[in-house]
Design goal:
The complex is a heterodimer. By secondary structure, chain A is an alpha/beta fold. Chain A contains 18 helices and 22 strands. By secondary structure, chain B is mostly helical. Chain B has a single domain (2-351), classed as Orthogonal Bundle (ABC transporter involved in vitamin B12 uptake, BtuC), CATH 1.10.3470. The radius of gyration of chain B is 21 Å and the shape is globular. Classes of the chains: A alpha/beta, B mainly alpha. The structure holds adenosine-5'-triphosphate and magnesium ion. The site of magnesium ion has 6 residues of chain A, from helix 1.
């Protein structure tokens, strides 16, 4: 018995389609019963390395040893058999299925050769859920769950497969702090039962909080493995980027209050067959020259608010006006024409067409500007793409399919597109989801620049630090209504604990009186 | 630099990265023909000779082979255009038949109009096919019906009606064929490779291929159509009017089928015979599949299809191969060529 769970040695992986060497002679070791963080900038090759370990990508060379045995992993099924599980950067769940159905998918308990034992399925899934203290209902439809709950389903899915080594690719990217804390609780318990965990994250404080050791990659190479206790956050950042870095962003307080751009008056959204309204009497204004932050725990209305702002979810009551004109009934097409720029939280299903090239993805909303007499202006489009790729340091080229970019780089393309085509107001939902430290900072700087140039910026984010450091005004949602509005002095003094209490709907009364 | 040029060139042609993969598959398919000939024919050498050389042995066979490919090209373009927008048009057969019928009777009616009559008749044929397909698109937009089924059903219904019209009110009393009257001599496309049937419609087919390619990859509407086909939610998010991309591509798709029908009449048959289109719609689907819905790849794919079909016919005429055996060979080839498992092997090989 050795005490290393996994050893990857000299892994080389080059993507043929793009000729990019994503893993350049990489070594990785994971101990038994340890939590290892894998960190590095966008496009460093973290996901690729984990896909190699999970049998989803075939390396050109290199060896993998699991529990002391040399192994060949050709598919996720092989990986599962060896006790390796992976939760992906982007969820791979079937929204129409229930939690239990999703979990057993591919490994169904059978009555006989042909029929699935549905009762056993539910029982087995229930067991896993309870054994690890999760809080999801096995018969709930996955589509109706919050992001944090979907995450749990993904983990349960792997635990149901009896894995000893669990890979999580940026699991905390879209979780609120509370959700992250509870996830970390689960991960620690798993570690204490002897499982090995590999966790990818861009957040330095998370690395410090959860990991025993950290492995750092840079531009396809492994920089090294470190005892977490022996490095501080600054050193970590330095190792990832190969240079020193100050994470603070400069922001001048906003002074001029200007015109109202968007006004929500008593807006409600009621879904069929659902008693509680998704949004209830939501009223606020968004003005030029300010960043308006929206905070809330998953499932409390921010998702619906995003869809309403995007014009994809019709409202059932109230009115929305844009510069004085009623847009309550406007669809996405009309809103775009009126000047909406919008970074969606779902970058793969909504924000991009994965098989289309980066340049094609960059012009979706501004396509009129890039055509003349109905013909596309190829040169302009390429020029535009190259400029944005440069400005946002996207790792990729204009004619690559966007789906071949790393998660963070896809996000950068979407941000670049929307910021470039901003005209009147811009909605950011989880803008820095999956971005590395430097890119996050860059995007934040851009948002402030937009504000200073007079944009009305709406920021929906589960990341409280982001909300608090950027917003000029914050609206807190709980159960579909605004429970608090923070501004000025109050916004500077509020603590995260207080924010958390608001978001759980505890301070409602007090806030309403302020 | 070299690499860049290469990539641009490939992009221009729309050649898939897996072009090499396609060649591998082609090779396997042809090997299957050899194998089957040795198994099923008592004179395999003779059979193979007629199968492979037959279609090319003289201008007559060559021309007829090329001629077969013309309606296939139009129709396969039709399938592909709908496919690029994420819609299935399985009603090609009826759209082609309907388009051909309307084009024929209009041409007969407009006999005195000269060139304007030709154009009018062809356009009417195209519009007929287009409207039939667009109707299914409209139903999908309104009531989320499945266009795969509605195009198919509608096509069958229309085929029956057209069959009745040809056999009834529009039958040419002067012949004992079940067919309409012939279009005026001056309307017919010229033959370009006597003594074969090949007509100048071939040029139209090539031009149309380029037009469809340019439409898809160079125009704003084509861009919107493709984005809608790749990810409808993304298209809607970007402000593309999604309803129109359920209808427009279907219209264009049907119009291409109708055009293919009209071309067959004006170039080859001159009269609309009952059931002349049987099989054409499905063959077009096979061609589009081989070309993986890329307009420019449709030309070689259609030629390949016509070649195999003509080879099978030749082998049937000149050796001991029966109709059934010829059909089996043909089917095996297309089965292999379109099989996605093989396609995957093809691409892997290229990668490895
Ligand atoms: N399917 C693919 N085809 C071609 N290239 C790819 C593919 N997937 C990833 N790459 C390339 O490999 C490199 C490493 O990507 P990878 O996804 O491993 O990065 P990452 O470290 O996970 O980054 P992020 O933090 O942004 O998720 C990138 O340059 C990317 O463009
Ligand atoms: Mg990644």
């Amino acid at each position: 018995m050795s005490d290393t769970a996994v050893t990857m040695h000299d892994i080389v992986k080059t993507y043929r389609e793009t000729g990019r060497c994503a893993n350049d002679h990489v070594d990785l070791t994971v101990g038994r019963g340890e939590i290892l963080c894998l960190a590095g900038e966008n496009g460093a090759g973290k996901t690729t390395l984990m896909k190699v370990l999970y049998g989803m990508e075939k390396p050109e060379s290199g060896t993998i040893t699991v529990m002391g045995k040399r192994v060949k992993i050709d598919s996720p099924l092989d990986a599962n058999r060896l006790g390796i599980g992976m939760v992906h950067q982007h969820f791979m769940l079937v929204d129409e299925y229930t939690v239990a159905q999703n979990v057993i998918l591919g490994r169904e308990p059978m009555h006989n050769r042909f029929t699935i034992d549905a009762d056993a399925a539910k029982r087995l899934v229930d067991e896993v859920i309870h054994a690890h203290g999760f809080s999801i209902d096995p018969s709930a439809r996955v589509g109706s769950l919050t992001v944090g709950q979907k995450q749990q389903v993904e983990i349960v899915k792997m635990l149901y497969r009896d894995v000893d080594i669990l890979i999580l690719d940026e699991p905390t990217a879209v979780l609120t702090e509370q959700e992250t804390a509870s996830l970390f609780g689960t991960l620690r318990t798993l570690r204490d039962t002897g499982k090995s965990l590999i966790l990818i994250t861009h957040k330095l404080h998370e690395i410090k909080a959860i990991s025993d050791r950290v492995a750092i990659m840079r531009q396809g190479r492994m920089v090294g493995h470190y005892e977490t206790a022996s490095v501080d956050e600054r050193e970590l950042a330095g190792l990832m980027m190969g240079k020193s870095f100050s994470p603070a962003i400069g922001k001048t307080p906003y002074g001029r209050k200007q015109e109202t751009v968007l006004r929500f008056a008593q807006v409600s959204v009621v879904r069929r067959n659902q008693g509680r309204p998704m949004l209830k009497d939501v009223s606020f204004v968004a003005r030029t020259g300010e960043i308006l932050g929206f905070a809330g725990v998953g499932g409390n209305g921010l998702g619906e608010l995003e869809s309403v702002l995007a014009g994809t979810l019709p409202i059932s009551g109230g009115t929305i006006t844009h510069r004085g004109q009623d847009i309550s009934k406007s669809d996405a097409h009309r809103l775009r024409e009126r000047g909406l720029a919008y970074v969606p939280s779902d970058r793969l299903k909504v924000g991009s067409a994965l098989e289309a090239s980066v340049s094609e993805n960059l012009i979706i909303a501004a396509r009129k500007r890039f055509s003349r007499h109905g013909m596309m202006r190829g040169k302009h489009i390429m020029q535009h793409a190259r400029t944005l790729i440069d400005t946002y340091s996207v790792q990729g080229t204009a004619d690559m399919p966007i789906g071949t970019l790393s998660g963070g780089n896809i996000q950068k393309v979407i941000l670049a597109r929307e910021i470039a085509q901003y005209r009147d107001y811009i909605v950011f939902s989880e803008p820095t989801w999956g971005l590395d430290i430097a890119s996050s900072k860059f995007v934040h700087t851009q948002m402030i620049a937009l504000r200073d140039a007079g944009a009305s910026v709406l920021l929906l984010s589960s990341n409280l630090d982001e909300i608090l450091s950027l917003s000029d005004r914050v609206l807190i949602f709980s159960r579909g209504s605004i429970v608090a509005e923070l501004e000025g002095e109050r916004l500077h003094t509020v603590t995260k604990e207080e924010m958390g209490a608001y978001m759980l709907g505890m301070h409602v009364r007090e806030a309403a009186h302020e | 630099m070299n690499d860049r040029m290469d990539r641009r060139w490939k992009r221009f042609l729309g050649v898939p990265r897996s072009a090499l993969g396609s060649l591998v598959i082609l090779f396997i398919a042809l090997a299957a023909v050899f194998l089957l000939s040795f198994l099923l024919s008592k004179t395999p050498a003779r059979t193979l000779r007629y199968f492979f050389i037959g279609p090319l042995q003289n201008t007559y066979y060559l021309g007829n082979m090329l001629n077969t490919s013309i309606p296939l090209i139009f129709s396969a373009l039709g399938v592909s255009l709908a496919m690029r927008a994420g819609s299935f048009n399985l009603g090609g057969e009826g759209q082609l038949y309907g388009g051909a019928f309307i084009a024929t009777v209009s041409a007969v009616a407009m006999a005195g109009w000269g060139i304007a009559g030709v154009i009018c008749a062809i356009v009417l044929g195209a519009v007929t096919g287009g409207v039939m397909a667009a109707f299914s698109g409209y139903l999908r937009m309104k009531w989320q019906t499945n266009e795969l089924i509605t195009t198919f059903l509608l096509s069958n219904a229309v085929s029956l009606v057209v069959g009745y019209l040809i056999a009834g009110p529009f039958m040419d009393p002067a012949t004992n064929l079940i067919a309409t009257r012939k279009i005026p001599e001056s309307f017919r496309f010229s033959r370009i490779l006597e003594p074969s049937n090949l007509s100048s419609a071939l040029v139209m087919a090539l031009v149309m291929t380029v037009v469809v390619h340019l439409y898809l990859y160079r125009t704003k509407s084509g861009y919107e159509l493709r984005m809608y086909g790749l990810n409808p939610r993304f298209a809607r998010y970007g402000g593309i009017n999604s309803g129109s991309y359920l209808v427009l591509p279907m219209f264009l798709s049907g119009a291409l089928y109708g055009l293919g029908g009209a071309m067959a009449i004006f170039g080859t048959y001159y009269a609309c015979m009952k059931d002349f289109s049987v099989g054409m719609g499905w063959n077009a689907l096979a061609v589009a599949l081989i070309a993986r819905f890329r307009p420019v790849a449709i030309i070689p794919a259609a030629l390949f299809f016509a070649y195999i079909e003509s080879g099978a016919r030749n082998a049937m005429l000149h050796s001991d191969v029966t109709f059934e055996i010829a059909s089996i060979v043909q089917s095996v080839v297309f089965f292999l060529v379109t099989s996605s498992v093989l396609q995957r092997i093809g691409t892997k090989r290229e990668r490895g």
